[in-house]
Amino acid sequence: MKETADGLIALYSLETHPEGGFFRESYRAGGKTGTERGERNFSTAIYFLLKEGQVSRLHRIKADEVWHFYAGGPLTVAGILPDGRVEETVLGRDTAAGQKFQYAVPAGRWFGAYPNPGTGFSFVGCTVAPGFEFADFEMGDRGKLLKEFPAAKKIIEKLTKGIK
């Protein structure tokens, strides 16, 4: 049986995510660790799905986030480096074409993602350590990002649609 976006959304009881797409937390470690932001679980994990035309809007979190490719077509994770350059990593099955099964986004980096052209959907997982809390999440502001990173204008505009 062929996997479909709607089938995976139903199977994993995914809900809409504030940054775009669909998600469901699948794991939250029972143990906790102290951070400068307070106590956090050791790690958390989610399933995350983007349909064709959807994006994960530019955002940043205060912990490292590892993306894992599961199903569907390739997905590009785009991050803005501190010097303003854009780094793009394609997650997918075609390792001969340079696609990766995993990619780690460092804490504090502005990043987002989108399914590659012709991809009906991309189904991935994201693991965060120390564990994710929405208090550590910041959605990107298009105007502020364009002022800070003018060389990244193209990706900022692509991944901040609907954000003022």
Report on the structure:
- By secondary structure, the protein is mainly beta.
- The protein has one domain: Jelly Rolls.
- The protein has three helices and 13 strands, in the order αβββββββββββββαα.
- The protein has helices at residues 5-11, 142-148, 153-158; strands at 15-16, 22-28, 32-35, 38-41, 44-51, 56-61, 64-72, 75-80, 86-91, 102-105, 110-115, 121-129, 137-139.
- A six-stranded antiparallel β-sheet has the order 1-2-5-12-7-10, with helices on one face. A five-stranded antiparallel β-sheet has the order 9-8-11-6-13.
- A hairpin with a 5-residue loop joins strand 1 and strand 2.
- The protein is globular.
- The N and C termini lie far apart (42 Å).
- 36% of the residues are buried.
Q: In percent terms, what proportion of residues is strand?
A: over 45%
Order of helices and strands: HEEEEEEEEEEEEEHH
Give me the CATH fold name: Jelly Rolls
Instruction: Indicate the percent of residues in helices.
Output: 10-25%
The count of helical stretches stands at 3
- Biggest sheet: strands, sense, closure? 6 strands, antiparallel
Number of strands: 13
The CATH architecture assignment turns out to be: Sandwich
Which SSEs are present, and which pair or pack?
Elements: H1 5-11, E1 15-16, E2 22-28, E3 32-35, E4 38-41, E5 44-51, E6 56-61, E7 64-72, E8 75-80, E9 86-91, E10 102-105, E11 110-115, E12 121-129, E13 137-139, H2 142-148, H3 153-158
